[in-house]
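Justification of resources, computational component.

The compute hours requested in this renewal are based largely on the per-chain cost of generating structure records like the one below. Each record pairs the submitted sequence with a full structure-token output. That output is archived, and it is also reused by downstream analysis tasks.
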Amino acid sequence: MTNHWIDIRNADVILAMGGNPAENHPISMKWVLWAMERGAKLISADPRFTRTSARADVYAPLRSGTDIAFLGGMINYIIRNNLYFKEYLSRYTNAPFLVNPAFRGPTDLDGIFSGYDGKKRKYDKKSWAFQKGAKGIPKTDYTLNNPNCVFQLLKKHYSRYTVEMVSSVTGTPEDKLREVYRLYASTGKPDKAGTVMYAMGWTQHTVGTQNIRAMTIIQFLLGNMGIAGGGVNALRGESNVQGSTDHGILFHILPGYLPVPKASLTDLKTYIEKTTPKANDPKSVNWWKNKGKYITSYLKAVYGDNATKKNDFGYAWLPKLDDGMNMSWLMLFDAMFKGQFEGFFAWGQNPACSGSNAGKVRKAMEKLKWMVNVNLFDNETGSFWRGPGVNPKDVQTEVFELPCCSSVEKEGSITNSGRVAQWRYKAVDPVGESKSDSDIMNELYFRVKRLYEQEGGKYPDPILNLTWDYGEKGADGKVKEVDTHLVAREINGYYHADVYDKKKGKLLGRKGELCKTFGHLQADGSTSAGNWLYTQSYIQKGAKTINMMARRSTKDPTGLGLYPEWAWAWPVNRRILYNRASVDVNGKAWNPKKAVIRWNAATGKWTGDVPDGGAPPLNQAKGTLPFIMKPDGVGSVFGPGRADGPFPEHYEPLECPVQENPMSKKHRINPTVKLFFDVKGPHDEPVKEGGLAEDTFLTCDVRYPYVATTYRVSEHWQTGVLTRHQPWLLEMVPQQFVEMSHELAAEKEIRNGDPVTVSSARGKVLAYAMVTSRFRPFKVAASTVHQVGLPWCFGWQYPEKGDQGDSSNLLTPTIGDANTMIPETKAFMVNVEKA
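The structure output for this chain reads:
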């Protein structure tokens, strides 16, 4: 989230799209209802009429996979009706930047941008570059009239997204589109705020990144970024998803969103030079210029005294990715399916049910020699070898189960969607032989280390040089039990020498003390930080250490719900990111009644939330631009870094009910997505090198005529491993079901409660029909399109009665977003028949 949960109460208009907060994030609805009690309006845009829709002032149905068309229509509406916040847009975004005159967009090129190479399925982005002045700063036109400026290109791009066109693509009635657009666009005034709450309904598409980009553009147009009640707010699906991402759970990032080194970056100096963005505008803070300090401090945290300037602070010991290597979810299981892995740790997950094209995932695990399943309960992953249609005698994989304790049986922090890191205390001791994740890792580390010490092995240095001072050690040198507080302190970081302000000569911190702020981190090895973003989360005042994440004060000096002494938020306890955009160039709040920060001219300081840097307002001599993490200092309406285009463009999902993309006849799906396999194969078996041309994919397979999507229910969590074992929850939602409209049920002669088979090109699932008014047929391109929906919280392993159904991900395809590779599980095609 750019903002935070409580801040939702400050919004005047709330758009719930790509998510269903009332059912899947029910506590968040407290703040939505709080806002509505004070006059705010709620919009629900969803293929299904949900409990969120039931509380909404406006409900707009739309076909799954058409969000960019829906949002693109709003962009067009805002521009055409002159409803954008021009002062904000022209000063705080790249809307006035001039783009290369050679740039062309889908309006000119029937669905693609200039520079496209069809054979490589990739863009040459030279024509997407900004025009630069003599000092290397982008040229601008603050009137926004130059035909090559971003704003005019945006206007041209979305001119095709008329209400009529959008309605024909999305199936949303025209009157509903106008109502939504009119209401949300009303927030484009200094004294109004609009916010969006989204979840996997936006991200799990082949255009997932661009779905969010489209909404970001709307927020820039309306001036809704950085303000109270604004922002673009992701509803994380678990209380620590944000924290796990912050700490490097994804293959391409280290903790603190530092990029994982590539093999070609052979030393630390090269890594820093090649990955640190440059900025020529003196008004740009370009905070990532400090990357050298953060990566060096990270290396010191990982390798401690073994990391020295002489050995490049241990940079050579860090794992490297081969250039061009992608090790995201789909790629991992594709490689596993091809027999390229011997072993696999399934840690706190259940890919046999959660993975897209779960049948392929289960087949892939049969190719392993061994697998370790770390979980509270056995699950479909741990027992894949005895699953439906599997003969255990044919499976070579040896499976080890390591029982892990639950969150209430261990101590540590979680970081929620709003970036608030909160400390949780242990309530009870672990059951039986189960251990915490940290203690399991502790056992593994010391056993692997001992093997290297006793037997040697290939390149032992990364293991033998690690620091592991997380608790009392026994006579054998092994940590007896991990002290999570020591881990938290290492993440915060230490001074490894007395550190001084190089300009003022002031002592910043003494050797051995906990680091006070990431502003003190150094690139010379004198500081450490396991994650620079969390420096300040565990501090020291004299001899006293203070766990900032454990604070529980309910003081709210601004009255905006910032609660600055409740726990701690990264970075530096800032509650609303880019909050300097909440004031004009002179430091005056756009909305004085909901001022996030205020400039005090008398003291020369900001008050309120922790500002994005202490520099004065933009119009002053030392003033800086508000978007400090961007090299150019402004928000990106035009995004030349994306793989699939600088503006979001509507493309159909891989599987869709239309023969052609209504927006562009030649390009039905995203032209830059990786095409894995022949969709006709039962497990997407690989085809010849180079993949398939787009036109060889089935566009409308008559065997699978209905759009399908997946979602959660309140009663179950994730794939149900935790909740299906609780009898009271299983009783509430005991079996896999499929929701369908009364109209579709009548066509298929299916009654409510009938057992049915839902099938796709990849597999089939037993489900029970839920005939409901929550789904209605869509009118798409003059044709009737039906959509159905299934939860993804079931699996065969528990209970083993056999009539509860299996994972809905047995139906979903192997295809992912062009930028992140997140699987497309929210829009695919199925058939439904009586069982």
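The first helix runs from residue 21 to 24. The radius of gyration is 27 Å.
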